[in-house]
Amino acid sequence: MLKFYEAQDSLEARQLIDALAAHNVEATVLGEYLSGAAGELSAFNFPWIWLINNNDLDLAQTVLDGFLASRGSLPKAGPWVCTHCGAEVDAGFDICWQCGLQKK
Ligand SMILES: [Zn+2]
User: What are the DSSP E strand ranges found in the chain?
Assistant: First the structure.
């Protein structure tokens, strides 16, 4: 088992699991908040995607890249992490405050 990706919500987790399954990558969701009422936000417990087989990491990363790119225009609700320097940037900003990288 390998901790792979923190999804924004259970819907994203499900979609990513499906995308991975389409490439024969076994994955599961842990830490999902199951007991909340419909529409209720759980800000403290995002679902984590775990890979069943550690050897699938490279392929899973490729699937994840495609998955994220395919929904590219959807704005994220939370802060984003700069792919260049790793700084966390507030959702309202499209440019990294630390290195100036444009958000993709
Ligand atoms: Zn940066």
Answer: 2-6, 27-30, 48-51, 80-81, 88-89
